[in-house]
Design a protein that fits this description.
The structure is a single chain. The chain has nine helices and nine strands. It has about 230 residues and is α/β, with parallel strands linked by helices. The strands form three sheets. Strands 7-1-8-9 form a four-stranded antiparallel β-sheet. A three-stranded parallel β-sheet has the order 4-3-5, with helices on both faces. The longest helix is centred in the last third of the chain and has 17 residues. The termini are far apart.
Length: about 230
Amino acid sequence: MKKHGKRFKAALKSFNVSKEFNFKEAIATVKKNATAKFDESFDIAVRLGVDPRKADQLVRGTVSLPHGTGKTVRVLVMAKAPKDQEALAAGADYAGFQEYIEKLQSGWAEIDVIIATPDVMGEIGKLGRVLGPRGLMPNPKSGTVTFDVAKAVAEVKAGKIEYRVDKSGNIHASVGKCSFDENKLADNLHTFFSSILRAKPQTAKGKYVKSISFSSTMGPGVHVTEQSLTVAHE
């Protein structure tokens, strides 16, 4: 059984954990209880009324957060010359092809996102067992397979994130840092949530959004009313 520390237990006592809060109240509550010695991420979890086992109900997408995530994203671009140099000029941390195939095969993990040009995907596809479990496999749907590597690098560095529903029907994402002011967090949350709404599968039946909660990296979840976030978005 998981044991929680003193900070977590104190946070649980500071608000009604069974209550659904207005999204602005929820933001303030999460920020108040983010008392770790580092700048905690501000996370959102959305439980959806979909069946992820069905291909036509697999909710996934990308969204560019207006104020970024607050994280330094390490980007590798898998491309041959001259695209590798184009990627480095655009701000990629690493770029190349064969040498990085070998590094990835050996377990190299100092990256957060991989972007690739279409002409090298045949070779990268062979790394599925290595990249797949780490969520690093480039995908055209997420914009990480493209010849326009400069644009892709710029978008990722500026705060473009990818989301995907898990096996239990939940979507989790970090949408900023707890040090962000409330208005910036609100902007990022609205942008992210509106993307989730637009991604609703046509085959999904019943209530689409079942629950929403905000939390910090080390803090408890704060339940949020869908109406408050939807109305604010509109």
